[in-house]
Amino acid sequence: FLALKIANVNWQSKLNKAAHHTSDYSSTEAIFRRGQAFNITLNLQTTVQSGDNFTFIASTGPSPAESQQTKAIFNLSEEGASGWNATQEPSEPGCMNFTIFSPANAVIGRYKLKLQIVSGNKVSSILLGQFVLLFNPWCPNDDVYMANEKERQEYVLNDSGIIFQGLEKYIQQEAWNYGQFEEDILDISLAVLDRSLNHRQDPAVDVSNRNNPIYVSRVISAMVNSNDEKGVVEGKWNGKYYSGTNPLQWSGSVTILRKWYRGRYKPVRYGQCWVFAGVTCTVLRSLGIPTRVITNFNSAHDRNINLSIDKYVDISGKTLHLTEDSVWNFHVWNESWFIRRDLGSFYDGWQVLDATPQERSKGIYQCGPASTRAIKEGDVNLDYDSSFVFAAVNADYVTWICYSNKRKERIYSDTRKIGKFISTKAVGTNSRVDVTANYKYPEGSLKERQVYKKALKLLRVRSTGKTTKITRPRRRSSAAWRQNMTQPAQKPSISGKLILDASPIIGQDILLTLALRNLISDFKTIKVKLRASAILYTRKPKAEILQLSRSIKLGSEEVKEISFKISYSQYKNSLMDDRKILVTAVCDTKQEASLLVEKDIVLQDPFLTIKVLGPTVVHKAVNVQVTFTNPLSEVVTDCVLRAEGSGLLKEQLRINVARMAPMESSTVQFEIIPYKSGTRQLQVDLVCIHFSDIKGFVMLDVAPA
């Protein structure tokens, strides 16, 4: 019996990749999207017998089974029960053309394709090869379908982006290299799924669930942090980063994912929220799920989800760690786009995922997908983790002052509004788009209050006027809660404001003014305790920089200004790996309520310029010139300039900058050879032990060869 002999299989790579929007992947493998036909050609060594019957078998995962939808058996022309089918197309002599169609709800991942031929009573089977099947935002029947082409270009195909950071009043753009199409990244993304706890517990069931974006995105939110299953990135929010990389020094996901993969799945040290979100975005975009990165300013981390964040300070304004709750200057998470068959179509659309390990969900550090519609409507009982995200954008911020005799009193402070300027990069440009309205109704509107009350009720938190009392057992008892927070803060008879005299640049002194105003006609003496601390973006103090006490006399309705400075020598040792300072002033008048004034300061980068010396064309070398200045009035040694960018540099480039005299400008030149056309992002980062990174980026339009 002579089986059909196949000389080779032509996977029609170019045609299929163009049709399936997978041309960008740097891989020789066949990569298709589900719910869409692909073509293959078999070049034959023998001729086909007229009675031969052809059956195709597509299978994925370690134990493929039809019952689990991980194996499909289908004949020519008739659609099998699996939803897969094949048709034979006209062809030249000596070859056969087939069109193979996968269903829009197929399991994603790496498949083997076999051809089985029945000739008389003989059966022979030939492995045609392997292909990868991805989610398909272009297919109307796929759960991840996105109707708008510009949005698909941004949220699926754009391999670079902007992550917003900083403060609500000083929002900064940070460039990020997603690089989902770079070499190995798709393989690594599939490996991320294979390393999950679910896969280790029951590989067959795990793979059969990979047809569902709800399931896949939730697994990724657990796997990108290392807390439970040796995931990709290890978080660290305190101390030094000697045994790893300072989270501020990453510029993209590619280096991190490759380091994890090449290091045999050892978690990469270290990440903070934007790193987890950047890596999550890369993995989900590479698998075909439309995904974006979101920044929430003044983000609440509400441990006990009672929608109240308590902050305690002592009489000098020092933050006391009496609570696990905190308000971060910003927090970064992801949104992915898909429908919610589990909740109903009202909740379709953008879904929040948060891979930063903050709280356990069903025993594991994972968060989401939580529908943004559920968060906006206060449906905090819906899967997954919508209560945690609701609190992040809606909790109340309450400040307490603790006296030495253990007495606590609510202190008046301009309530930091939680959940401000929720931001993402615009479609097609680098500008900021405010998406706060996707998360909540206008601040102070009737609808907003109704939603808040509904959420309190669902969370079983009793509401009494301005104050909340929690009825379920709390993890910690605190005196404040025992008093049920009956006392809203008394409004003091003075007002105050901390004003920055100029935008401070690293290496320079910081000049500040505290302006105090007496709101009534009585004469008064005010004791002011000023304190400056180096903080993380989570507002957690790292080091004390300065403490001052002043006494100020204010006449009737008088305004007085106190100027003070934080000199470079005072802050330099505390700000080597970051550049955030929190200044607090506790203003105390004898008989009346105290006032707390706070100001967050982010020191600015010294300038860094990037010049591309010539046109950028695929496969043509071009020089890049980077100029930067040592911001310090001292000699700086051992700096490294790093450059990276998908489609421009295959690996991160590092150039040593040996020595820079005080305030000296330096220029470094290097060569890039673009290997992909289109809009590309080149990032440059000057890393130095004396001050935190100086970053810059430039967008390049690369012409095809």
Automatic annotation (TrEMBL):
Span of domain Transglutaminase-like: 265-357
Highest taxon listed in the record's lineage: Eukaryota
Residues holding Ca(2+): N394, D396, E443, E448
EC numbers, comma separated: 2.3.2.13
Cofactor: Ca(2+)
UniProt-annotated stretches for the region Disordered: 467-487
Residue numbers annotated as active site: C273, H331, D354
Recorded catalytic activity of this chain's protein: L-glutaminyl-[protein] + L-lysyl-[protein] = [protein]-L-lysyl-N(6)-5-L-glutamyl-[protein] + NH4(+)
A Pfam family annotated for this UniProt entry: Transglut_C
GO function term, MF aspect, one: metal ion binding
Cofactor note: Binds 1 Ca(2+) ion per subunit.
Sorted UniProt keywords: Acyltransferase, Calcium, Metal-binding, Transferase
GO cellular component, one term: cytoplasm
InterPro entries: Ig-like_fold (IPR013783), Ig_E-set (IPR014756), Papain-like_cys_pep_sf (IPR038765), Transglutaminase (IPR050779), Transglutaminase-like (IPR002931), Transglutaminase-like_sf (IPR036985), Transglutaminase_animal (IPR023608), Transglutaminase_AS (IPR013808)
Family: Belongs to the transglutaminase superfamily. Transglutaminase family.
Protein name, as recorded: protein-glutamine gamma-glutamyltransferase
Organism annotation: Aptenodytes forsteri (Emperor penguin)
